């Protein structure tokens, strides 16, 4: 894959992530989970804008910027959400939210996997700047997956669910 192909596919995935969070947050019952989805929706939008800047720079100069990392502190928001507890909602509402959270978790895991594989591809074509960008994006997505995983585990624990499996075994 070329640099442009890798970035265009990343852009597409981020757009789809944005659409998912935007549409699914309306179905959620827990205010905290809705807030998390609003945050994730905004992060996917920022990732899309970031990738578009990279594409524009690359298309005009055939080079990627060396100052590749945006000045964002996603950890501040991730930590804020991790420290909050889910609101007390009826069992049925938790189960509905759990279903949507599991979808979100799988999407984020797919993003992590894509960015890992794309970073390997970038290294093979000797695009080390691109590799670093992709690793940075992967780390952002891992943070999202961890946040969602914690919410899923909290519902499992709070409702004493024992499904015999966890969707996030890695």
TrEMBL record:
Domain of life: Bacteria
Coiled coil: none
Pfam families in alphabetical order: Rubrerythrin
CDD domains with a match to the protein in the record: Ferritin_like_AB (cd01045)
Annotated Rubrerythrin diiron-binding domain residues: 5-64
Classification via InterPro entries: Ferritin-like, Ferritin-like_SF, Rr_diiron-bd_dom
Name of the protein in its database record: Ferritin family protein
